[in-house]
Amino acid sequence: MRGHEENYSYLCAALRARAARFYTWEELSSLARGGFESLKSEFLEGRYSESYRSQLLSSLSSPLRKIELAIMFEITRRLRSAHLKAQGEPHELMSVVLSQADLHNFRIILRRFVSKGSHQEQEYLWHLYGDLPREFFKNLWESDSITMARERIYLFGNPRGAILDSALAVLQTSKNLILAERELILNYIGYYETSISKFPNKNGAIVKEYLGRLVDLWNLNLWLKQRIGAEESRSSADYLQGGAWINPKDLSNAKVITDVIRWTPWYKAVRTKTFNSTMEFQWHIQREFWRWQISLFRKDPLGFEVPFGYIAKALAEWSNLNIIAIGTAFRLNSDKIIGRLIPTK
C-alpha cells in the first residue's frame, strides 16, 4: 500500500486518458483483415513500436514470437505503470485484480506437471503484472518434478507461493488436475478475501464480485466436464462455495445448464445462441466475463470501476492481438479470427 490517501480523482483521469491508446474494435478488425505483413508494419510504426523494435535485435525469435513478446512487454509495462499511479484503497484493490497474473501462471505450472508430451523449448510468456517475478515462475517451469518445484517455492520465501504449493501437493497425491485446480482457486480466493474485507464499500464489492465470478466460472466448467465424462473429472470434486451468482446446490442438481444461469448475468452469453460443442459454450461464458469487466470502465468516473475496467481493456487487447497475430501468421479466415476476439465496445 503506497500511503493512506485515496487518489481516485487523479488516477481515474489519468487512466481514461491512457485508454485512448487501446485499439478500437474497428482497428482490431482491420488488423485481422490486413494479413501478417500488414500487422508487422503496424507493430513497427504504431503503438507497440518501442517494444517491437527491441525484439528485432534478437535473431533467436521467429517473426510471430517477436510480436508476441512485444505485446507482452507493452501490456505489462502499461499495467505496472497504472498500478504505480494508485494510492491507498485503489492501489490495494488493483493489487487483488492484478494478482490474476499469478493465478494464470499458477495454472500453467500445474498443467506443466500433467502434460504427457515434451515441454516446449521456449520459455512460456508469463503474465508478469502481478506480485511474483519471472524468476519464480521460470525456476518452477524448469523443475524436474513436483517435489523439486515445491522445494523451490519454499526457498523463494514469498507467502503467495503457498497458494500454488498447496495445489501442487494435491496434484502430487491425487494425480488429478481438477482437484488441484479446485485447491488452487480455493486458496487464491481465501488469500485475497482478507484484502477486500478492509473495504466494505461499493469499490470493495466490485472486486468481491470479480472473485465470485471466478468461482462461478470454475463451477460451470466442472459441471460441463462431469457431464461429458472427462477422464480427469472422474475423481469426485465438490463445487466451490462463494460464487457471485450461481448456487452450487442448484448446479449439482441441474440437468440443463441454462436452468441454473437463466436468472443471472451469465445468461446474456447464451440466451440467443445455439452451441455445437462445450468448448463453444465455455468461450461465450468466458467472453461474457470479459464483457462485464470492460463495461465497468464507463460506469462511476471516480470509482474503482475505472481502474478495474482499464485492467480488463489492457488484458483484452493482449488476448486480441495475440489471436490476430497467430491467425494472420497461419492465414486463417479473417472472419473466423474476428469471431474469436473479445468485444471491446
Give the topology.
Blueprint: H1 8-18, H2 25-34, H3 36-45, H4 49-56, H5 63-85, H6 89-98, H7 100-112, H8 134-141, H9 146-156, H10 161-174, H11 177-197, H12 202-228, H13 248-253, H14 257-261, H15 278-295, H16 305-329, H17 334-339
Whole-number tally of structural domains: 1
Radius of gyration, taken over Cα atoms and rounded to an integer in Å: 20 Å
For the report, how would you describe the main beta sheet?
none
Q: What's the total helix number?
A: 17
Residue share in helix = 55-70%
How confident overall, as mean pLDDT? Answer: 92
Number of strands: 0
3D architecture notes:
- This protein has 345 residues and is mainly alpha-helical.
- It has one domain (8-339).
- It has helices at residues 8-18, 25-34, 36-45, 49-56, 63-85, 89-98, 100-112, 134-141, 146-156, 161-174, 177-197, 202-228, 248-253, 257-261, 278-295, 305-329, 334-339.
- Helix 4 (49-56) packs across helix 5, helix 9 (146-156) runs antiparallel to helix 10 and helix 11 (177-197) runs antiparallel to helix 12 (202-228).
- Keywords: Ion transport, Transport.
- This is Archaeal/vacuolar-type H+-ATPase subunit C.
